[in-house]
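Section 3.1: Structural characterization of target chains.
Under the original work plan, the team committed to producing a structural model for every single-chain target entering the pipeline before any wet-lab resources were allocated. The record below documents one such target. The sequence was received from the expression subgroup and is listed exactly as submitted; it comprises 364 residues.
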Amino acid sequence: RVMLRKAALASAAFILALGAAELLLRAISFRPFAGPERQVTLIRPRPPPLEYDLVPGASGHAWGAQVSINSLGFRGGEPRGERRPDILRVAVLGDSITFGNGLSEEQTFVNKLNEMPELKRFEFFNLAVGGYSVRNYAGRYDDLAEKIRPDLIVIAFCVNDAGLASINHGMLLLQDSMGAFYKSYLAQLLVFAAKRAGLTTVGWISNADKSFARYAAGEIEPLFDPRISRAMDELRNMGAERLSEEEPLRWYASPIHVGFLRHWFARIGPEKMPVLVAAIPPLDENKQQLWALANGIISALAAERSFQLLDLTPALSGAGLSRLRQRPIDDIHLSADGHALIANELASALSRRAPTTSASRRRE
């Protein structure tokens, strides 16, 4: 009986401690699944090839910034009004760079484009979602095309768009696996602490050729262009295959990843829709030789689809790639100055387009 009494007291104390911890976490509004960098309350699961997107009308502090999602489900204000024949609508597809992680909406290059007087006959829509790849871009366009009826597409292409690099998706999968336990802040804390390392590595591990081939089964096209083969050979000769799995430039030496790119480039937008691919380099001067080869592969794939390529490397390099980083250790995400440079380059490329050549006019 003494042992039973002690066990009962220990159990009661343990339960009380758990309850106290739960109350404390709620009192300080601590939710690891909804922290500044992990705001799953702003994203929701969707069927492939989307996998997830943004919750229409949601808002909050997320991904290092104050974020508001409009009624159509993307960052930015509502469309200006009814579609007009004298205004070109531009769907901007991208990942966390274009979305503007760490930046206010006003600092993003999409917003800056909308504010430029010389582009008043354009309206830009920021359809970007952090962690997206070219696979998700195709799904994102198809999901929103009828709502915004764009005239042309801009793909803000980042080096890691050729593989899996989405912690957002991993967080959603983890949340779903918790079921009813997700309602407990303490359970969120314990699960997140146990799985945190996996969330930061599982995406990169999935980019190993065998794992990625399983993920992208049926989505890997053969490669016939000799320019692509030569660039891949040069990447291998320069040691790209010896880079760590978490280095996206390695993927461009892989026919699996490049075949994946080719498959989804062919499925972004209607066949006659004008598409501009704006290639954003890694913000590291030491990676530019490898990037030049990877960029050549992107250029060849874009040419197969008659996409126009805008290489942003010269403009960003001129300002100093490493100086355009948001954080010293992050060679992906651009500062507000970097977004301003991209806006200027895109404005120059797009201002020459006349509304009378729009794909939507041809459809009408």
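The chain is about 45% helix and 10% strand.
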